[in-house]
Task: inverse folding
């Protein structure tokens, strides 16, 4: 693991990244395009095949980037949050509602931060028809409705399906703003987000926000358990096509097929990116005065690397921007997890952080050399998304080439179990005098119940630090084990810690990795 520290002031691009909940660059206005990129007449339906969006993205990448058109009527372009929130889609207008299909689609209106236009098509029997904007799809509150003869398009959409009970259509996922999308599984509430692509995230030269411009939603069969969504992404540096197959359930799955066409050489393109929030927790409560024990959408980064190692990196809210690099070859999976699932860990009856999903990315096929990148940005408020993770290819993605990636996203209570190793469920950190910290790590796993306590030991290593008082013992409250140790340092240099639980020479647990900045 290589770590890079950035002690510079936060730039404007990082402020934009932090404020994903309050600011997201949404999609750009785009008429229906021919494959040549020119505006064409809009027939009622057009042929739509498996390679349609891929070819469209390839063709658009060969042409100059067209900047977003954010034109809106005056009554919509300057909306504040409360007035925008008052614009509601009418559920009885949902796509396919009257047909009693297993999925329904509702749309988001443009306005506030979501000024950019998204065009949405319905695909039926191999033909695509544009879903026309109509103001009577929405209630507008105090905001005057726009004229009915203006085609404003949409800002995004959400998919509904029976998930928690058969007689109610729950919200399953939402595509809204730039290339962001979120999903939940059964019994969960929204938390962290995924993105189609990130470019220059965390880089001093400024982040670029690719946009989903057009979606094509395939009409599901009456007995379907999944729904297929196609998307076209565009930015100054690249275009891409996506095919999402969404399966709601106890774990909601997204099968993603992506074809990327760079306009420029991409030396910092984040694949399968995800964005989350970590404000404070038992490992990081510096200067926190709050009645809640923890506040976060995710508490750690999990990695199952190509060498067969399973890593757990607890998140933190650092004083300075931190970028951690976990080099790998053909990763098996990575994701931002919300492992702590007890209400007592949060004590928040409104936010219900214990119901936030984990997000696990499972690459399909070989992704080659690269690294999992973790970015942690300082924040003083929980409204900011200050955590990012993604896969960064080692070699730049060359302009005028095609790059294909297939992966599965798991939204749910946990990652798929890679093996039977015990897992770190909690990281607690406290003071033990000046320059010394005590780390208390809890582990859970069925295999820990059968171990011989006399043969269990904790192995802890660190650079430029003294490790002492390593203690391992059963934890009767959790049915697992507890590993604790003290760390002393002589200077203010950040150190890297590594710990695991062993039985003789056999690993009992995944590998805990952590950065402590004294």
Result:
């Amino acid at each position: 693991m290589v770590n890079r520290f950035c002690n510079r002031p936060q730039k404007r691009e990082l402020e934009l990244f932090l404020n994903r909940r309050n600011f997201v660059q949404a999609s750009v206005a785009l008429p229906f395009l021919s494959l040549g990129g020119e505006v064409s007449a809009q027939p009622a339906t057009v042929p739509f095949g498996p390679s349609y969006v891929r070819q469209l993205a390839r063709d658009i990448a060969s042409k100059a980037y067209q900047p977003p058109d954010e034109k809106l009527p005056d009554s919509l372009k300057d909306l504040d949050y409360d007035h925008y929130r008052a614009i509601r889609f009418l559920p009885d207008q949902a796509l396919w509602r009257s047909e009693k299909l297993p999925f329904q689609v509702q749309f988001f209106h443009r306005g506030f931060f979501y000024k950019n236009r998204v065009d949405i098509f319905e695909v039926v029997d191999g033909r695509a028809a544009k879903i026309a904007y109509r103001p009577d799809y929405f209630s507008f509150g105090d905001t005057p409705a726009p004229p009915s003869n203006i085609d404003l398009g949409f800002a995004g959409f959400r998919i509904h399906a029976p998930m928690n009970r058969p007689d109610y259509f729950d919200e399953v996922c939402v595509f809204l703003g730039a290339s962001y999308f979120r999903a939940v599984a059964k019994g969960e509430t929204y938390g962290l987000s995924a993105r189609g692509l990130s470019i220059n995230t965390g880089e001093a030269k400024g982040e670029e926000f690719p946009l989903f411009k057009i979606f094509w939603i395939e009409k599901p069969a009456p007995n379907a358990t999944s729904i297929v969504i196609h998307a076209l992404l565009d930015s100054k540096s690249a275009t891409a096509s996506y095919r999402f197959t969404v399966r709601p359930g106890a774990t909601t799955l997204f099968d993603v097929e992506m074809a990327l066409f760079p306009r420029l050489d991409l030396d910092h393109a984040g694949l399968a990116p995800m964005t989350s929030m970590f404000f404070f927790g038992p490992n990081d409560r510096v200067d926190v005065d709050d009645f809640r024990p923890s506040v976060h959408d995710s508490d750690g980064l999990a990695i199952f690397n190509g060498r067969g190692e399973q890593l757990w990196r607890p998140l933190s809210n650092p004083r300075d921007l931190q970028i951690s690099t976990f080099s790998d070859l053909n990763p098996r999976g990575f994701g931002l997890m919300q492992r702590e699932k007890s209400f007592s860990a949060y004590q928040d009856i409104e936010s219900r952080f214990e119901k936030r999903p984990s997000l696990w990315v499972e690459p399909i096929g070989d992704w080659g050399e690269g690294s999992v990148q973790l970015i942690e940005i300082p924040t003083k408020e929980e409204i900011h998304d200050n955590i990012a993770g993604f896969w960064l290819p080692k070699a730049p993605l060359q302009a005028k080439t095609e790059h294909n990636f297939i992966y599965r996203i798991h939204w749910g209570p946990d990652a798929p179990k890679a093996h039977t190793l015990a897992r770190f469920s909690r990281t607690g950190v406290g003071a033990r005098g000046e320059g010394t910290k005590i780390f208390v790590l809890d582990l859970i796993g069925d295999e820990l119940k059968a171990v011989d306590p006399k043969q269990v030991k904790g192995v802890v290593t660190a650079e430029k630090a003294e490790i002492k008082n390593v203690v391992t013992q059963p934890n009767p409250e959790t049915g697992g084990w507890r590993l604790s140790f003290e760390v002393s340092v002589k200077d203010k240099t950040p150190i890297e810690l590594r710990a695991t639980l062993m039985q003789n020479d056999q690993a009992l647990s995944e590998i805990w990795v952590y950065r402590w900045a004294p």
Q: What stands out?
A: The longest strand covers residues 252-262. The helical segments are 12-18, 52-61, 74-77, 81-85. The CA atoms of residues 228 and 289 lie 46 Å apart.
